[in-house]
Amino acid sequence: MSNHAGVRIPRFAYRIGAKAKKTFPLFLLVVGLSTCRRVDQKPLTLNYFRFGWSVTQAWAAESALAQNFTQETGIRVEDLPVPENALDQLDLSRKLVKDSSGVDVLGVDSISSGALAGDLLDLRPYLSAEISSIDPEYLSGYTVDGKLVAVPNSVLVGVLQYRADLLREYGYGHPPKTWDELEKMAKRIQAGERAKGDKEFWGYVWQGNNGEALTCNALEWQVAEGGGRIVEDDRTISVNNPGTIRAWRRAERWIGTISPPGVVEYKEFDSDNIFDSGEAVFNRVWREEPITHGGRPRQFQWVNAVPGGRLGYTSIPGGPHGWDAVLGGAGLAVSRNSAHPKEAVEFVRALIRGQIKRSDGWPTSYPDASRLEPNVEDQHGASAKPTQPVSEIMSRPSNATGSKYEEVTRAYSNAVHSVLTGKKEASGAAADLEKQLITITGFQTGPPKIAN
What we know:
CATH class of the domain at 45-155 and 330-358: Alpha Beta
Distance between the termini: 93 Å
Number of strands: 17
Helix content: 25-40%
Number of helices: 15
Oligomer: single chain
């Protein structure tokens, strides 16, 4: 067959009319070129290493934003598999950001900023408008050597979840304000429920598995006792002190009394499953905060918006030296080795704008809950006027320890876990940990910084 304009005409084309014979080869050329263009121009895909877990509503909202981004830009977003443990996520993130085909956008826990900073873009020049709407306090955890290596996308704060119906049944007018109160309430309610026949009922469930969640729990215990933050902002190691030792001993007493023996292996979903099945009165969980919230979260007494409701949320219990909740959550970062940095930044912009919009109608993380300020009416109709100081949010010592944080937190959780499982006595574990941290960081020892 003859070849017209570089396109071979199929045999059946010569069976049509003369006029069509002249136009058909051009038609084939257009079709052929457009087909080649569709083959060559495959949809651009961004690899997204999403933070491993968060509250369900935040995930759903982010998925919707990602779908809208794809519809508007034609750019696809592919979620990469993410391990549950925060330190495992950090290990995998280190590998992915080194490879241009590995990851474009990644969720970064605030504790990981220092470790990953060298492979992340400084986002401040690209997202100045969005950054101006975010609480500056939440930006500090993602700022390394003056560069903003990630932008907060979700802010989580440790809180206490509780069975409001059981507190009412046993005559308690408010949730526990201190760890002492929690112990007393947990013991009494646990004994009462077991007397009714529920032999598997427990007073308090939490995350005792040897990992980052245990670091968060134990920090909240020890700060209430004046035990400091493991490594202080001035880079002194403060962990070996009487407050820390008291806090660890208290938690060890919980095992088998108000907390199940298996709690030393619980992760977040394990404790949630026990509480959600109705087998515990208290549970330590994360509560989402708006990224645009101005100022530190206040001590809230009662966070159940429905009078007579079953569930409540309140601040982490405190003690003689304060009420501090660990700050969690994740920021969004762009790999310096991304093959599509411009598009990756635009995806981050879309997600952050969506979070800012969500913050306008806060709270949304718990449909049946509302955030209450001090001096409000609780669900019994009595005025709730907390006498304890306003609660603080507390960052883990990742900024002070930088790239060494992973070693520091592993050593810390190992020490706490050894106490909880009876392998070491608290004072000996604290002394051994202090020596380890000196070796890891090269820092000097010093007293804990006590806010109150």
